[in-house]
Specification:
It contains 5 helices and 38 strands. A hairpin with a 4-residue loop joins strand 4 and strand 5. Helix content is 5%, strand content 38%.
């Protein structure tokens, strides 16, 4: 909705004294006798009218400088006014700058913060402004268009959970905006996001935030349980409204249709990402409609107790070893005749073994995105394909759990599942970790045109006997010309986990840290950020 107000119009004609003579020159008008008033035409940040006592700030800028820097004008039911009169020179044009809500200060505001808790209303969080150039002093009116300078998210919720919605919280939004000289606004660079609560009115939730590029997270508390949904990245623009429609079920929330756009400019709908809710008391979380077991291990951290089977949008699991940049591969199983391995698209196998991810996809990128060692180092503890609040394991997570990894990582002899020589699968599984060898697709580096199956040995033909799990800590790099980084990356390695079951006895099965080339495709086990 546009907001307009009448400030001043075209200049008055020069007034002539009542008793003039033919030779009397017209006298210039002293405009300083006229109070500068603002008469709103279409008003109010809440889509109705300004209310008595509402105040705007006004600056009047002439060629020589500011005539008024931040004058407070108050609404009396029909117009805004204050102590400010026009300057006397009716031939000199000026620029008017006005904004709402008024903030006391020596000049126009340079920063604006929306309320984190908007449950009582959004008016105080709706920064609107207008700039009008070439305005001459006058007793008449001039129309000035006010525009919303922030963004609004309108959420419609269909509650199918069978319990009342107790709370809705949005995360990842930066609440602080930087105000430009032209009174436009955008989220302040470097400002931290804060949890924000929307205003509920007539079956919709309204939240006003500065324009920003963000991946919002919505948390809905219903029946004493908090459900979490991460949305896809969206670039919010000033003055635009974005609709979000959710269905809340007992175990998850999902985005469905867009809501209707009313007074603001239509910015479109925000698309939901994978749904997520966790129940640590019952040792599981639900992610994108799939329930996963989790366990708190003796290292004090929550780990997934099964492999991830989440398929990122736009991917189809590859079943071709020449698809070296597929990003995601189907899981492996032993052939019926025990002669080797094969891909499986059986839903039961996918649920049990999970998908195999190449490192870039596991870490939230696309195959080919990583072009340098510096970029790889930035991915430490990345969320990647894991749900919100969880991450792909770091080397510290790994040695904190199993104690041992390849050189140059020092052994952590105090790790709870280290027996003095190796991390043992038997010890891990005794506490519910459910580790096994799930195989992998071995692709040595980005020059290879085909991969090979990893995880089957003739000595143990009935089972998968090895594998590699993805990790997020950078380990090493090689280049197309040895030692020459400018020649381009040939391979990057990350520290991951390597289960080995190529032993006669289960008591000897090991699971240690290893280096995993970034084109190798392996399973993912996520670790919770906050314990």
């Amino acid at each position: 909705m546009k907001k307009m107000m009448i400030l001043a119009g075209a200049a008055l004609l020069a007034l002539v004294a009542c008793n003039k003579t033919p030779n009397t020159e017209p006298q210039p008008v002293d405009f300083s006798q006229y109070k500068l008033k603002v008469e709103p035409v279409i008003t109010r940040v809440t889509e109705t009218n300004f209310e008595n006592g509402d105040a705007i700030g006004l600056a009047v800028v002439r060629t020589g400088g500011a005539y008024a820097a931040n004058e407070k004008l108050t609404y009396d039911g029909s117009a805004f006014s204050g102590s400010l009169n026009w300057y006397d020179n009716g031939d000199e044009a000026c620029t008017l700058k006005a904004y709402y809500p008024y903030k006391e200060g020596e000049g126009l505001p340079t920063m604006f913060s929306v309320q984190q808790d908007q449950t009582k209303g959004t008016a105080a969080s709706d920064f609107v402004s207008a700039v009008k150039e070439n305005v001459l002093p006058s007793a008449n009116a001039v129309s000035v268009v006010f525009k919303h300078q922030l963004s609004r998210v309108v959420t419609t919720v269909k509650n199918l959970s069978g319990a009342d919605i107790e709370d809705i919280v949005f995360e990842e939004f930066v609440p602080v905006a930087t105000i430009g000289a032209d009174l436009t606004a955008k989220a302040t660079d470097g400002a931290k996001w804060q949890p924000m609560k929307p205003f509920f009115k007539e079956d919709k939730y309204y939240l006003i935030v500065p324009a920003q590029t963000v991946k919002p997270v919505v948390k809905v508390t219903v029946g004493g349980k908090t459900l979490t949904q991460e949305l896809t990245e969206v670039s919010l623009e000033p003055g635009k409204e974005y609709s979000l429609s959710m269905v809340v079920k007992k175990e998850e929330i999902k985005v469905v249709l867009a809501g209707e756009i009313e007074n603001w400019n239509d910015g479109g709908e925000i698309i939901g990402g994978p749904s997520f809710s966790e129940n640590l008391e019952e040792r599981y979380f639900t992610y994108d409609g799939v329930k996963y077991s989790v366990v708190k291990m003796k290292d004090g951290k929550w780990w997934m107790a099964q492999n991830l089977a989440y398929l990122p949008e736009g991917y189809t699991p590859a079943t071709d070893l020449t698809a070296v940049t597929a990003g995601v591969f189907a899981p492996l199983q032993v052939k019926a005749d025990h002669s080797g391995l094969e891909f499986s698209t059986d839903p039961a196998v996918v649920a049990k073994n999970g998908y195999l991810y190449q490192a870039e996809v596991a870490l939230g990128l696309k195959v080919g995105d990583l072009q340098s060692e510096a970029d790889a180092k930035l991915l430490e503890a990345a969320q990647g394909v894991c749900p919100k609040g969880w991450h792909v394991p770091t080397i510290q997570d790994i040695i904190g759990l199993v104690g041992k990894a390849v050189s140059p990582i020092e052994t952590n002899a105090d790790a709870p599942y280290y027996d003095g020589a190796n991390g043992l699968i038997k010890l891990l599984n005794a506490d519910g970790f459910n580790m096994d060898a799930f195989g992998a697709i071995s692709i040595q580096d980005n020059t290879k045109t085909a991969g090979t199956f990893m995880g089957w040995a003739k000595g143990y033909p009935d089972k998968l006997s090895s594998g590699m799990f993805c990790g997020s800590t950078f380990a090493s790099a090689t280049y197309n010309t040895s030692g020459d980084e400018t020649s381009g990356v040939k391979n990057l390695q990350f520290y991951g986990l390597m289960p080995m079951t190529n032993k006669a006895s289960e008591d000897q099965y090991t699971c240690n840290g290893t280096k995993v080339s970034y084109r190798i495709a392996g399973p993912v086990r996520c670790v919770r950020n906050v314990n």
